[in-house]
Structure prediction request, 116 residues.
Amino acid sequence: QVQLVESGGGLVQAGGSLRLSCAISGSTFSINVMAWYRQAPGKQRELVAGISSGGSTNYTDSVKGRFTISRNNAKNTVYLQMNSLKPEDTAVYYCNAKFYSGLWSWGQGTQVTVSS
Prediction:
């Protein structure tokens, strides 16, 4: 069993920065990929960034060059550094764990609001 708890969301002006954190507890050895997803009102949840157990990363095109995903294995925490934020980045951001078994787990989400 793995629990994911996000923090770091909030209200920021366009052009500003936020860092999201996802604290992971439980059977962390069973996790293959950690990722951040987001869901804006009226839209489907979309993948923002992912990082594998080996450290490989991937990003959706709209955040490339602005967002950075990283993980601190010693602290069992995954981060999403978000710079040059835009109003269209406004969404609930969810931490996601993909297990080697094929199962997924989700955090409760944290709201990010970017004002213009």
About this structure: The first strand starts at residue 2 and ends at 7. The radius of gyration is 13 Å. The chain has a mean pLDDT of 96.
